[in-house]
Write a structure and sequence with these properties.
heterodimer, A: alpha/beta, eight-stranded mixed beta barrel, five-stranded parallel sheet, flat, B: 0% strand, elongated
Chain lengths: 694, 124
Amino acid sequence: MKRTVIIADDAAIDRSILKRILLSTYDVLEAKTGREALSLYETYFASLSAMIIDIHMPDMDGFVLIKSITSSPTWYHLPLIVVTEDRDIKQQEEALRLGAVGFIEKPYNKTILLHTISNAIDLHEMSSVYNSLRKDELTGLWNRKGFIEEATPLIEKAPKGHYVMTALNISNFKLINDQYGSLAGDRLLCLVASVIQESFSIGADGGLAGRIGSDKFIILTPTDYLLNNNREKYYKMIQNPSFLPQRVHFRLGRRSIDDPSLPVSKYISQAFMAEQSIRQDYGGFIAYYDSKMMDELLAHQQIASHMVESLQKNEFVPYFQPQFNHDSGTLIGGEALVRWIHGGKVIQPQEFIPLFEQNGFIYELDCYIWEEVCKYMRKWIDGGKSLVPISVNVSRNDLAHDGCVDFIASLLKKYSLPIEYFRIEITESVFSSEAFIQQKIARIIEEGFVVEIDDFGSGYSSLNILKNVKASIIKLDMRFFERCADESRAATVVQFAVRLAKWLGMDVIAEGVETADVADFLKSIGCFFIQGYLYSKPVPVEEFQKLLKKGPIIQPKRSNPAPIFVSSKINDPNSFDAWLFKTKAGPACILEINDKGVEVLRVNDAYIGALSKIGIPIQDVLKLNWRAYFDEATKQRFQICWKRLLNGENDVKEVLTFVDMPGAPKKFSVDACQTVLAKETYSTILYCAVTFLL
Amino acid sequence: MKEIFEALIKEGFDYETTLERFGGDEDFYLEMLSSFTEKDPLQDLKEAMKDRDYARCFRAAHTLKGVMLNLGLDELSKPCIRMRELYRSGKNEEADSLIDEADRTITEFTTWVNPLLEKWRKEK
């Protein structure tokens, strides 16, 4: 029997020539257009051996045709051979990328052409036969032999622990088969296979799946998948198939691939051993074979068995991490963080929060902690202490509970707390979750709570969130920037975030600040609020209360008697900025002038000192548009001064007089000596040494 | 060998390579050549030019190139090849300007080849 080949080419003469060449060996079907070729493929796919495709066809070009064929559900790697221009490498690359297996060129060379086609067909047929011995006919997954052959090289090459083997067994398969017939059983097996392929990203990134017994599936995936992906949805798809009136039960057994020298078959059997270990156990459906996973599981069970009791015994307590104004040294707030005091040890949240998120206990715990915080705040007020705002964390999980917002609002009423003192901290990623969560956040803001965006910049849509959500405070985690290899870039990003917040009228609290250098840098760019080990780690309430008791002022820590402002490199005293601020000892600042006004970007300590003498707090200076407070004469003088600077003059001196600047004397002047540092299309950066004239 | 091939060879036709493509079947070759010359090969290209549909211009020039090379009409295909390259790189007007040259060479070719094809058909 001759094999069948399709020729797709719009040029009739070329088609006839090629057909004549092929007819000695093959049956030929002709398509004048891409669409015709596609419909021939759909009709004859089961009996085709190859398709020859001309790239340039009028209705549907060859590339689109290849894409349509390879994404068809009937696609089985039919050899696709593309007719190309000689030396058109781009076109050939694209064709290969899309799944073509070879090329022939015009004008046709009979010998090359026939060999190309017959080699492609041979290769395909050989691999089909080979794969039919390695694939499960029903589901298309690997069979035992195929799975082992495919898994072995993957495991050998991968680092220890990179992969995990998961065994899946349908517990009530026999029952289903008996009750609803083997057709329904087969359908269930195919469903499980397709869910496995989807949920474990099989094929996309090194995952493998096989069926090695009637209802026994085996899956090899990078461990990351199990950690990062929520599989609940997929589990449900298997549990409740539309075509079965009965729920499907299944169990999973896991074995981490931690010893590449063990054969794959060993891992398979151990994964199934784990699965078998829970066959009596109705509740649990995932079991782990290996000791580490087993230990974790046991630890989790341990935690879970104690959690409710611990809550009743008040073993969960809020710790408070104080927040300071780095300029004044004032305590400006605190973040409440949960700790578990259990068996004389303080357990850190990362050890129990993930588990509580899984088992749903987290909401109960968070509610408890919020109330504890409220109780303390009430106590502080009653005790005559100066109250500072306290932030509590509200997770996606909490927000998903219907009563969450009402509960928080009711707490404030119950303890009659001023709403601006109970801040809600929500992780950035939560702001972009499902619509109903976003609505909850909107309600919190409507209620009048101060909302903080935690871990700002860590997600994918930071700017989008700023655009849409009226939060009041951004929290920047400096540890996020520490891991950055290029410090000056990190500094620029931080500076941008601070300025962005300023433009939006938001405050910034930098957390994870561990060194005075970082704090000083933050201050120089207008970020004064600091939370981190530099000042204090999270402390028990007794200690935090002392800060309140001692009154508001504590001395800020300084890195250096003469602080250096460095944005280009935080720790490099030889940088340009350091030089700029050090060598000019008097008050100095860096200004940006654009069509909107004059903005102070950076100031040195002498400048802050001089300002405080005339009574202007530094925060305000960095928020002001100075040009708005020029008096009439200054406005004109500034225009002239500005032109001179733009014309390339350096060190232009001018006396500038300000009136009605908030917080400042009604009228004051400065003697400003300005130098252009950088010019851009829309703005100019100036270095400005100033003397304050009162 | 038929008279027509002698004439073609005189014009630089590579008999051996080309006829191999046609399984050495002279009649089959001449049939294909007839279907190429029986109506204006440039018709599609000219229509596309009139519509200023340059994607189609490119495709038409490309198809002509393939067909002429398959027929071993290397010399004749040259203006079309140039046009194809020009359309490809977006130099549409420059490409358009070559149509007269392409038309002239093809007309010259059909003027002498069509009577010979007619003669071959009669003999057959």
